[in-house]
Amino acid sequence: MHAWDGDTDLKQGLSIVGFLILAKVVDSLSQRHWFFDSRRSGLKMRSALMVAVYSQQLKLSSSARRRHSTGEIENYIAVDAYRMGEFPWWFHVSWTCPVQLVLSIGILFGVVGVGALPGLVPLLICGLINVPFAKIQQNCMARFMISQDERLRSTSEILNSMKIIKLQSWEDKFKNLVENLRANEIIWLSKTQIMKAYSSFLYWMSPTIVSAVVFIGCALFNSAPLNAGTIFTVLVTLRNLSEPVRMIPEALSTMIQVKVSFDRLNAILLDEELDSSDGNLRTISRSSVNAVEIQDGNFIWDHESVSPTLRDVNLEIKWGQKIAVCGPVGAGKSSLLYAVLGEIPKISGTVNVSGTIAYVSQTSWIQSGTVQDNILFGKPMDKIRYENAIKVCALDKDIKDFSHGDLTEIGQRGINMNGGQKQRIQLARAVYNDADIYLLDDPFSAVDAHTAAILFNDCVMTALREKTVILVTHQVEFLSEVDKILVMESGKVTQSGNYENLLTTGTAFEQLVSAHKESILELDQKNENKTRTEESQEIGDVGWKTFRDYISFSRGSLMLCWIILAQSVFVALQTASTFWLALGVEVPNLSSATLIGVYSLISFPSSVFVYLRSLFTAYLGLRGSAAFFSSFTTAIFNAPMLFFDSTPVGRILTRVSSDLSILDFDIPFSITFVASIPIEIVTIIGIMVFVTWQVLIVAVPAMVASKYVQGYYQASARELIRINGTTKAPVMNFASETSLGVVTIRAFNMADRFFKKYLKLVDTDATLFFHSNVAMEWLLLRIEALQNLTVITAALLLILAPQGYVSPGLVGLSLSYAFTLTGAQIFWTRWYCNLLNYIISVERIKQFIHLPAEPPAIVKDNRPPSSWPSKGRIDLQALEIRYRPNAPLVLKGITCTFKEGSRVGVVGRTGSGKSTLISALFRLVEPANGDIVIDGINICSMGLKDLRMKLSIIPQEPTLFKGSIRTNLDPLGLYSDDDIWKALEKCQLKETISRLPNLLDSSVSDEGGNWSLGQRQLFCLGRVLLKRNRILVLDEATASIDSATDVILQRIIRQEFAECTVITVAHRVPTVIDSDMVMVLSYGKLVEYDEPSKLMETNSSFSKLVAEYWSSCGKNSSSNISRLQH
Questions:
Q1: Where is the ABC transmembrane type-1 domain (predicted)?
Q2: Helix, strand, coil: what percent of the chain each, to 5?
């Protein structure tokens, strides 16, 4: 630029251009590699942390596991580890920015001298104002994270218990719960976004003020002439300065977020681990006499509670002994097994366990994968042992029925298997594992009596005859066969001895009868077993359609226009002010005051428009988030049950966690950048063309080439991001699955194998992330090269132009803008690619917004009278049910009547359609043909809520929600405390709860984990007692309850529901023999429907079932039958 002051020295000019080329090339290459390498090391950090959290989760002690729920652990992996992956890049930004600052200030002093001093004052002020801003933003962010955790925890719990929510028709209550949690989250989100608008205002304000102040300084100190050279050097330098000034606070706030994530990760990584040190000896060798030995053991789950869970336990179990543990609900039977496993914290005493352990938990834990994977559980395949394991666990028939045999896929949490199948797969896994000691926690509760007998005789007594077995059971008929029985009561072993001894001591050794619990979802196994729907991903160019959807869905087209308008005004003002400088320098007698004054007047207002632009952006984003979230929640809560049975929970959760947070934070700002930067680029090229039109010869081809390169990149990048979307879910699913089955994994000593499998999943995820990063840098390198061509051409043209062809002012103007061209183009490319990747999240959320809904909750014209059903008479008329439009019928034309006030028992083998009948009654599935009429009203004509509020059910799997006892019994808040206490008294929980310090407000942890299965079952009974409906359905609710409690339960139901129609789905003859009517189903057909006494006299299927039941129970059957009938 100084070349024009004296003689035109072409050589000097060309050498400057040469340096320019060199500087640009070095700059471009080094920056790309810095970005790429820092991202790569970030990726390594992220993977390492994800793996560290995972391996820690395998080691956490029980109390630490209560502190970190499954949802939280998913969050540590999905959010915090990812954030730590961004750390290296920001770390380098935080030291390179200050260096850039210092260099820029150095140049300023070099050009302007002392005049630059006043300019540092506003710079400092702007820098300092940024600090409290970053603090406030940080605070908002932290609060946002906390409320997001809350929401995800509760969403995950709701999705896992969707079945019960639908049966009880509590959707509105839980939907409101999620929406309120989200509203709280939005408060912090909006604060964060509006703070961003302020900081962008500051960012644009500072260069304008600083440049004006520097010019005034020049004029006052006369330290440099106010000519084109000085003015444009100052402007370019200040433009370089503003970048670090803006990045430093941003880097600080990211570092603070990293610190928050760091602390959260620290909390789990340093939390209490299971200590194998304090006398919990597990030796693999079989050196000692006893297999298991506990001396004076006291164990406690919760360090805060007063009395230990298990007191004064003394146990000696010899090799090969079979021990049964029985006792009432909540006596500590499962805790005893945990003590042997070393899962429960020990206060005093010693535990010695030698040999390897296999464990079968009470609530079955099945991984998603094939049946074979679940049974092998990482052991190599040994055909003979495998076939044998399947046979003794009575799985051979089921596997024959599955569509793909033992290669049938099992859905997440074993969703397409019924309870009995899951339980037997678990048992087969234990048998195949060939351990020394077997701990079986009530493994027969989920199967019918006949199967239970087969399992006990073939599996426990035959296949495991040389093994040591500790069996927790409620089934008394097996007790006579074991070597030793332990009777437990409230945490103590009260009696031990063999069957005869215990009988002679005259204890209340009741006849416990085995139960069968069958899963509600009897998917007709023969045909429907690939239930997992594959996760769909759109292919090809989403492009503008999804983008338009986003804008129209959040009704933001007006907002977008305002944003573009604000940006245009901003660019116009900025350009006008620099033009004024370029032209004003040429006017000979223009005073410095006028020059600077007009410049300031034009450029100050521009920053106001930037502020408006950011504000509109924030509002656009908030609107979008709100619109998508509410539609998504509505769609999920209105989805039919079939959707939840075929969609893994993890897949729904990624939509509301990672995809939603992209909608919250990333999309609005990227839309603004993509829409507004082109205005700047066009202006820059416009100015260059205005000064030297010849630039067009290079600029136009360069733009076309950039567009082409970008299209070439986009095709691969889009699919990479899409595939990456589907590799992230398995990482999350696997982690949450592990966290549910930690006890089993540790018992089988399989932690290492799970760890290795997780490493593979993390690596797959990382590979894709790595590739999309490489592709991005590849693209930017090429675009930078093309844009640098334009800049260099412009510089060459200015030097080669004849003297006086272009005025010095315009030369300065053209070059100062040309230097920002590359930056602007790169910035735009990066954000454009980001936006196209982010938009995929919108597309993924939209997939779930358009789910088919179930029928309406309330039909206005067809509301049943409030007293309905007053009698409780149910007519089934030629009822046919299928689960999917083209699937085979599960119920094939059932016609019968349940009279008002009668007790009806429904029996039949596994898969006969008993649970489907219940689903039909609650309209979880709509009838394909035929009707269900209750008290003369067809239930398909009314709304679902009206129907489900009037029916009561005690489901198979007792579900509790995190909260208090009150919210669990009465989520809708319809009853007084008085009513609740009465209900608790009737269902035998009153004394337990009145001993708790907070009474009805006592806490219930995730999925009711701090109450035993039997107690949870009693809570479900309490809910029913509160509702007092005329129709009650018992879905084999007595599977995990000891017989004493069971007797009470049956008595309460008899007394309280004497007037009501009670339908019991059972496999247990005793529960049904005293019913008024018995209904026998077989393969979806009604075989018999009559009074039990009549059916017993003929050669009916019912009498066959009864005979089979007693022969399997073996002893004293005749006396029992006569006792039951009297």
A1: 1-257, 562-824
A2: 65, 10, 25
